[in-house]
Structure formats: structure tokens, C-alpha cells
């Protein structure tokens, strides 16, 4: 595949100002997409206490997932870094205080003051208050809905020149379904998986498997299934970072564009499956 840069492909990857917590769009669709680890911004007070370099943080964030979901009418993108507050973890683990919470990384230069953690956790609280209200409005309009909880993951963890992770353990697209009633939502999940597998992707079909590299145990999916047990299906979608150089942060424009088209192509399939399964 031709690895054009984003600039060469005329892709706009501009992000909002650092002060925004998240941005949100609302349209007429029963499908919602989120990119809750896309963010890289930090408050100045938090950044001064963070020991990690910009590059170290970026490596564990999910850059460009916002671009992948741009064609979904209902979408939410979080702009704060997961290293400030991780909204995909429960409130009591949303700030990485110990290396074992952060891939062995020692995040902070010292103990975090209470006012720092309080402000970060307030965002976590507000995010879930917003999400619940937002999804209630989708529920009122459509009865049932699907949330595509989009993430990405590294597959060259041991170094930029190292061999990638074994294919058996690292599908191109990992579908996480751990927290859902899999039998209830089988038509929705299966139709999504088939749509992704059958998409005419440059270089050949993508390897799509369920619960291999990740199982969909994130807090957002669990929150949705707990609060919308009969009406909400949250599918954790983890793209292997085949769309970027994970050690430098350089995006591969054509791959990104193809993933954006792929995700958009699943929207009518999901809407039709929800309607037919009523």
C-alpha cells in the first residue's frame, strides 16, 4: 500500500483547542461512534507534573481514531489525554497512579495534589452524565441503538524495528463483546463483523476476530450495557495501528482513509439489522 502522508493526501487531521473536553455531533441514526482515547491535550498544571514525553503519551493514546469515525452522524470525541483522566476506566481507576495501571510507565513526578485529581475526576463524572443523557435521546428516537466504541492498539511494543506481534494474537480489527449479552445482540454483532470482513480494503480483506487481543472490558461499554440493558449494544472496535507508525506518530493517509470508508459502510448494515431484529 502506498504510504502517503496526511498532507500529501490533503487530509485534515486538525484537532480542537486544548481547552475542550470533548466534541459531539448528533444526527438521525441509531448508530453512535466514540473515540474516547483520541485526545492528547492536558491542562498545564497536569502537564507540569507528568514525567512522560509527548511521544510516550502518544504511543499509548489512540490518535486518528477521531478521523476514522468522522462520517458517523452521532459521534463523540474526547480531547483530553487518557493520562490526565481515562474515561474508559471506572472512576476509582481513571487516574494512573501506579505503573501497573499504565503499561509499566511511571507517569507522575510526585504525588498528585487533591485539587488536580478532583478536577480530573469531575470531567469523568460529567462525561458519563452527558453520555447517559445523549444515549437516552437516541433511545427515544430509535428505540434501540449501537455504539461503536472505537480504539486502536500497538503491535510493535518492543521497539520501532522489532518484529510485530504474532498474527494469531493481533487481528487487524479486534471486536470486543465481553460485557454484552452476546446471544441477544448476535444479529447486530455478526452483521457488523461480516460487513468489516467483506469490505474491499486496499491490499486485501482485513483480519477481523472477536475477543483476541482485547475483550471489550472497558468501562464505557459496561456502563452502556448496565444502563441500557434492553436497548443499547456497545461494540468495542480495536484497530491495530496499521494506519500509522506507532513509534513516531506518523499517519498513513491512504490506510486511514480506507478505514474511514469502511466504518461508514457499516452504518446502513447496522441500522437495517436493528430494524429487522425488533
Helices, strands, pairings?
Elements: E1 22-25, E2 31-35, H1 44-49, H2 54-60, H3 65-68, E3 74-78, H4 114-142, E4 145-153, E5 173-176, H5 186-198, E6 208-210, H6 219-227, E7 232-240, H7 253-276
Parallel strand pairs: 2-3, 2-4, 4-7, 5-6
Antiparallel strand pairs: 1-3, 5-7
Helix pairs in contact: 5-7
Organism: Sinorhizobium fredii (strain USDA 257)
Pfam families: FGase
Protein name: N-formylglutamate amidohydrolase
Question: Could you explain how this protein is built, in words?
Answer:
Pfam families: FGase. InterPro entries: N-FG_amidohydro (IPR007709). It comes from Sinorhizobium fredii (strain USDA 257). The chain is α/β, with parallel strands linked by helices and 278 residues long. Helix content is 33%, strand content 14%. A seven-stranded mixed sheet has the order 1-3-2-4-7-5-6, sandwiched between helices. The longest helix has 29 residues, at 114-142.
Name a few traits of the molecule.
278 residues, alpha/beta, Aminopeptidase, 7 strands, 33% helix
Structural category: alpha/beta
How many strands, what sense, and barrel or not for the largest sheet? 7 strands, mixed
Radius of gyration: 18 Å
The CATH superfamily bears the name Zn-dependent exopeptidases
Question: Could you say which overall geometry the principal axes of the C-alpha atoms support?
Answer: globular
Mean pLDDT: 94
Distance between the termini: 41 Å
Oligomerization state: single chain
The CATH topology? Aminopeptidase
- Name the helicity range: 25-40%
Report the count of strand segments: 7
Number of helices: 7
Which architecture per CATH? 3-Layer(aba) Sandwich
Residue windows where pLDDT falls under 50 for at least 5 positions: none
The topology string of helices and strands comes to EEHHHEHEEHEHEH
Total of domains: 1
